[in-house]
Amino acid sequence: MTVLILTCEQDVTADMVVAQLHKRGVPLVRFDPGDLPGEGALSAEYVRGEFRGYLSMGGRVVSMDGLRSVWVRRPSEPAAHAPEPSAWLSAESGQALYGMLECTQVPWMNDPSAAAKARLKPWQLRLAHQSGFPVPATVITTYPRVARQFADQYRHVVVKVVSGKPPSEPPMALPTTLVPPDADFSDVAAAPTLLQRYIAKTADIRLTSVGNESFAARKVAEPGQVDGRYGDTGHTWRPVDVPGRVARAVAQYRKFSGLAYGAFDFAEDSEGTWWFLECNQGGQFGFVELETEQPIADAVAAWLSAPGE
Amino acid sequence: MKPFAWNYARPAELAPVIDQYAYDSTLQLNVLPDGRPAIMDRVLLAAVGTTTSTAGSATHFDD
């Protein structure tokens, strides 16, 4: 039985899991949807109630009834590498590929419908609250007046993007940023804007959830640092124990969301409380494993090898 | 009028050009010029930042 990994060639984080699967002797096929059609090929038949499907890449062929699990990592847009790419070709290729894979009963990390829902930050915040995490007060609004009132009420607020996706034209980075007290909120009318109460953090926490396992790491924050992804502080990630309350909330979140994998970000305050910031259903883990030596790739490989056990 | 969040944007960093390793379709992972898997060189991976939480930002929003 074969593990199918949907990701691009440049994804060295996937390499970490591929190496673990090799160690375990588990067959795998690494397939980039961007190579379909072309180097990647598929065929699916729906005849007299029967379904048969095949996928091939680089000389390897995998039958749909020979699949063990599917890992969605960093796949390119379907048909992205075609000689004449187009939105139409991407749509056709995506329908054929993901539709065929959905016909199987194998477990996904993560199931596409669960992943799509988990990307919705407003839904994340609600689910996090219901799961038992402390969540900083947040508003998402297109009303400048509401934004102003929120900022007045909480005094120190940050602005962050709702989708997490940076603008591409022109390419920009949008780190989470502290809003100055004299900010003019009239531009809030131009796009839904997410404001959140600023948590004066002592550390960033990254908790990687793989199946039933959790790997938490902590990195000391500089005073006043807002977005831990930007700016090198000289501190490194260190393993940290997961408080019982957080562990229970993670289990609830996992149950309600249907996610097999999730990378949780928290801000730890001076009292040691872990404030939920977000859960990235496809979040990176290589940087944590490199610094902490926590066996996250091995846990992913173990789940893909024996999903659900 | 531009989106409020754009007032706090900064120029995107260019993705590093990575030529220290290349994909090997037989092994199904990236390898160094000497044939070893790229993941064996932890210093290199940390330096090129390909596994970090901002690595996917240009093309993916789940970091």
Automatic annotation (TrEMBL), chain A:
Matching InterPro entries: GRASP_SAV_5884, MvdD-like_ATPgrasp
Domain MvdD-like pre-ATP grasp: from-to ranges: 2-112
Residues in coiled coil: none
Pfam families on file: ATPgraspMvdD (PF21068)
Gene3D superfamilies xref list: ATP-grasp fold, B domain
Tree of life domain: Bacteria
NCBIfam families per record: GRASP_SAV_5884 (TIGR04187)
Protein name per its UniProtKB record: ATP-grasp ribosomal peptide maturase
Automatic annotation (TrEMBL), chain B:
Domain of life: Bacteria
Pfam families: Strep_pep (PF14404)
Stored InterPro entries: GRASP_targ (IPR026496), Rbsml_synth_pep_Strp (IPR025744)
NCBIfam families hit by this protein: GRASP_targ
This protein's name: ATP-grasp-modified RiPP
Gene that encodes it: tgmA
